Amino acid sequence: MQENVSLQPYNTFGVEAEARYFTEIHTPEELKAAINFSSSRALKTLLLGGGSNILLTGDFDGLAIRLNLKGISEQPDGANHILVTAQAGENWHEFVMYCLEKSYGGLENLALIPGNVGTCPIQNIGAYGTEIRDVFVRCNVLNLNTMETEDFDLEKCRFGYRDSIFKQEGKGQYIILSVTFRLTTQNHSIKTEYGAIRGELSNAGITEPTIHDVARAVIHIRKSKLPDPKETGNAGSFFKNPTIPLPQFEELQIRFPHIQGYPNGDAVKVPAGWLIEQCGWKGKQIGNVASHPLQALVIINATGQATGKEIFDFSTLIIDSVREKFGIELEREVNII
Ligand code: EPU
Fold first, then answer.
1. In angstroms, what is the span from residue 175 Cα to ligand 1's centroid?
2. Among residues 62, 11, 8, which one has the least CA distance to residue 39?
3. CA 270 to centroid of ligand 1, rounded, Å
4. What pTM was estimated for this model as a whole?
5. What is the C-alpha separation between 76 and 72, in angstroms, rounded?
6. CA of 240, closest atom in ligand 1
7. CATH code at 316?
């Protein structure tokens, strides 16, 4: 147990904030001991995975626990599938690369997403036409009410767009210890419907892509558009893409003929990046904070000196201008601490 520890290395925004207490755990037993330390002193607890989806807006007056559970295990599942279980502290992209090296299919569209395995179910991470729920079997969690472990299957997780039970009624009640995925060992289902992937593959002259080709395309697209947190602090998309009722979209189409939208039941999902760009934010910098010049949805710690509060205030200005221009309320995707 350490005291007054800087959390700067543990959040991909790279903002400075201190935790009153800090510990790194490597086993479920160490995790339980840390939780007991926290509850016996009535401390707040902050769980740190890859730190890629949090914004620390000030010092944390409680116990920050860095989950460092490691390990990957496999179990064949019929002729065409394999069940792969990764512990929560495995780095997501390294895990995706591990699966690709073994030619297991299903995660290739999700290459290069920052963060750890244990946090991927919380917001049902997704990119380029795939979401984690497509290959998810179960996760093993520590129930903080009972201090027992239990499994959550696909149904129990109630996945939605960047959403799950862990962000809703289960918020703060469970700690994900490991996640099991069902991947293909042959006859992979290749997902190339996302326009940018199709373009990337056709530029490379690939007509029958393998899972490795798809991963390479995804990595290339992400590297060309999204800032590397090791170089420029960021947390990926700062906002969710908003879903609005069809009549509202049709009315906006009259005023903004170039507005983009993807039908989603009776509603339409609108790219927040486009809305933010139209409000003039793309590449704009105020103080130490900016909207990324190549993807307006990503807020960056442009100078490396930004405080969490500055980033939060910048995001509020974006929300205000999108509301004013389009009447749409943007919702933050990043967890504000
Ligand atoms: N767009 C703009 N201006 C911008 C950015 C985007 O006009 O500055 C337009 C693009 O032209 C495109 C549309 O918005 O037509 C969608 O853009 P993009 O393909 O970049 O995807 P996105 O909707 O902005 C989502 C995810 C990303 C994921 C990509 C690819 C959310 C909140 N974000 O972004 O996820 O990588 O799709 O699948 O759903 C993340 O969650 O951190 C993340 C990076």
1. 29
2. 62
3. 10
4. 0.94
5. 14
6. 32
7. 3.90.78.10
Q: Identify the domain boundary among 34, 67, 100.
A: 67
Report the separation in Å between the CA atom of 137 and the middle of ligand 1, taken as the mean of its atom positions: 27
SS (H, E, C) 256-302: CCCCCCEEECCEEECCHHHHHHHCCCCCCEECCEEEECCEEEEEEEC
Domain boundary among 197, 225, 253: 225
CB distance 229 to ligand 1 below 6 Å = no
pLDDT per position in the chain (337 positions), as tens?
A: 999 999 999 999 999 999 999 999 999 999 999 999 999 999 999 999 999 999 999 999 999 999 999 999 999 999 999 999 999 999 999 999 999 999 999 999 999 999 999 999 999 999 999 999 999 999 999 999 999 999 999 999 999 999 999 999 999 999 999 999 999 999 999 999 888 899 999 999 999 999 999 999 999 999 999 999 999 999 999 999 999 999 999 999 999 999 999 998 889 999 999 999 999 999 999 999 999 999 999 999 999 999 999 999 999 999 999 999 999 999 999 999 9
Instruction: Find out whether the beta carbon of 224 lies less than 6 Å from any atom of ligand 1.
Output: no
Residues 219 and 326 reside in one and the same domain: no
Residues 114 and 197 in one domain: yes
Alpha helices in the chain (DSSP H): 28-40, 92-101, 154-157, 195-203, 211-225, 246-255, 272-278, 308-326
How many domains are contained in the chain? 3
Is 237 catalytic? The answer is: yes
